[in-house]
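Subject: Sanity check before I submit

Could someone independently write out the structure tokens for this chain? I want to compare against mine line by line before I put it in a report. The sequence has 320 residues.
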Amino acid sequence: MPLKKDNNPIIDHVPRFFEYLDIEKGVANKTQEAYSRFLRQFTNWLEENNLQQIKPHELTDEHIWDYRVYLSSRINKNTNQPIQKKTRNYYLIALRGLLNYFTDRNILSLPAEKIKLTKEKKERAVKFLGIDHLEKLLLSPDISTKTGLRDKAILESLFSTGLRVAELVSLNKDQIKIKSTDEELEVVVVGKGSYPRTVYFSDRAVKALKEYLNTRKDKEKALFIRHKGPTESSKRLTARSVENIVKKYSKKAGIPSMTTPHTLRHSYATDLLSQGVDLRIIQEFLGHRNIATTQIYTHMTSQKLRDIHKKYHSGKKLKE
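---
Independent answer below. Compare away.
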């Protein structure tokens, strides 16, 4: 079907664009909120430049260039520095989504591919722990105390499952149904974007959880709770609390101070990949919606692949 001009201003299409994201694309609420925030910047720019009546087919390459110049001049209020290239790309991605909506609705507009993202020179750095550092970290809690048993269970669970810290702190006791004969445990969690997936606790993690839960005589729903502080408020540990716990034991174990719960998630994925697990399986374990997100781990094992190639495919068996 040929594209047709639409005489409604771009700004008037924005509410229908979000209906489209919700109903037809099934985009998660959090993602819609992000798109709304980023598109608001574009509509504000249109109004500031007296372009609030501009129609989809009237948007030009020059308008896009002017908007990019505007984004590059914006200052981050927290740092007093220009906003990062990565953040600028988020604004552009949201605008491309709107242009794709026009195409899907057979509305004539600038093609989305006309908006090129800003190239980022630095690759995303993935921090992970080697087996020696992991062992030191996992053995660092004092399991003769209730708090130590809890922290041991937290660390073991993070590395065993690859859970995001928000997913970990949202777990409830009734999800952890450990039988006396259980060596492993399967738990369904609702991850990022409200997508459910199954995570698997190793026998080490199950053992740590069992020992920790044996100390719990309270009626709190949360799996991991604080043992100090006000009694009238929720005792469920927050993501910040878990981050502080990981930082505490990283320091105690003498491993890199930048270690975070996400470092353990990276370590989990890297460990699986180094042992030959297919990337798409790791994608499922981590709850990534896009395989490209999981591919950040592939360069972590390049040295191992190089060593294997040298050992098994050096050509030494061939006659010279």
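---
OP: Matches mine. For the report I'm noting this point. The chain has a mean pLDDT of 87.
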